[in-house]
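Revision sheet: C-alpha cells.
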Amino acid sequence: MEVKLLDAILHGELKPWKLDTSNTRRFAELVKAAKAVSPATTAALQTQLEILLVDYPTLKKLLAVNFSIENKPLLQLLYKTEFPNYKDPITQYYFILITALALRFWNNFLKQSESWTHDTDIKYQVTKTLKGISVLTKQTATELHEQGFTSIPGEQSSLVHFALYYLKHSLIQLYFSIQESFKENLAQVITLEDFYLLDLEESKGMINELIKIAIAPTIEVKSIAQSGNKPFSFGFKGDEAKLRNLISVLCTHKNLLDETVTKPDDFFKLLTTKDINDKNYKIQIGCETNLFQHVVDMLKFKLPKFNYANIGRCHYFTTKNETPIQASLLSNSKSNNPLPKKTKEEINKIFKENDM
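Predicted:
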C-alpha cells in the first residue's frame, strides 16, 4: 500500500508551512464537524476524512481509492505514545487529520491482507509497506532537523513543528502495529531502538517509547483450500524416517498430540503430503500451546511453509481444549507465555538427536 495521503502532509497540498492559516474560523468549523462524527466504524472514519479534506478535491478523490467503505468496527493501532497537546483550531485540525489518516491506512491494510493466501505474497506486501512507511518517517525526521526542530513541541511551538512531530510519531505507531501483526511472515523484525538508530539515524535520546495497548487482530485470510484449489504442501525437505521418529519421540516424552484424537502417523502424513487438501486432517495437540509453538519454530528449518500463518489458514489444528489454532494464538503464546528454558532445552535436544 502507498502512503499518498499521509505523504501529502510532507510533500503535497497539506504542507503546514504552505498553509494559509489566516482564516482560523474555517479550521474551527472543520474540526467541529469532524469531531461530531466520532468514528467508530470504517464508514464513519471515511465521512470524517471527507469533512477534513473538503477543501482539497484532489485528496478527497484519493479517499475512495482502494478503501472498503463498510460499516465494520474501527480497529485502533496496537501502540500508543505520548504526544503534545494541540493549542488552537489549526493544530487540532492536524491532530485529528493525521490520526484519521493513520487509522484509515491501518484498517485498510488489514482488510486488504484478507485476500493474501501465500506466505510469499504476505511477506512481499508487508515488507513493501513497511519500507514505504519507514522512508516517509525518515523524510519527516530529516525535515524536522533541517527546520531546527529537535525538541518536543510546546505551547510556543509553531504549527510546522507540531504537525511534523505528530506525523513522525504517528508513522512510527503505524509501522510497529503492522510489523507486530505480521511478524511471523517477516524475515527480520526490527526493534524500536534500531528503528531510531538505523532507519532514522537518530540518537537513543530521541526515542519516544511505545506502549502496547492491544494484541494483534486475527487476520481473516482465505484458507489454503480456497486459494484456487492449487496443490499446497509444507515443503518438507529431509529424511522422512527421521521425521516420523521425531514425532513419535515428541508424543512419548512431551505429549505433543492428543493420541485419542490424532495419531502420530496422521501428523506425519500432513507434514509430508504433496497436497494438504487431499483429505481432511484433524490435528489436536495434547501439550500446552507454547510447547507446540516452539516445536513449530524448530520444524520450520525443514518445513519452510510450516509457519504460524499457514497453520491457521489450513484449519486442521486445534489446542488440547479444541480451540482452533490461529497464527495470532501462536504468536501471542510466544510473546506472552514463553516456554520455560529447561523445557525448551529438552525439546532442542530431541531435535538435535533426530536431525533430519
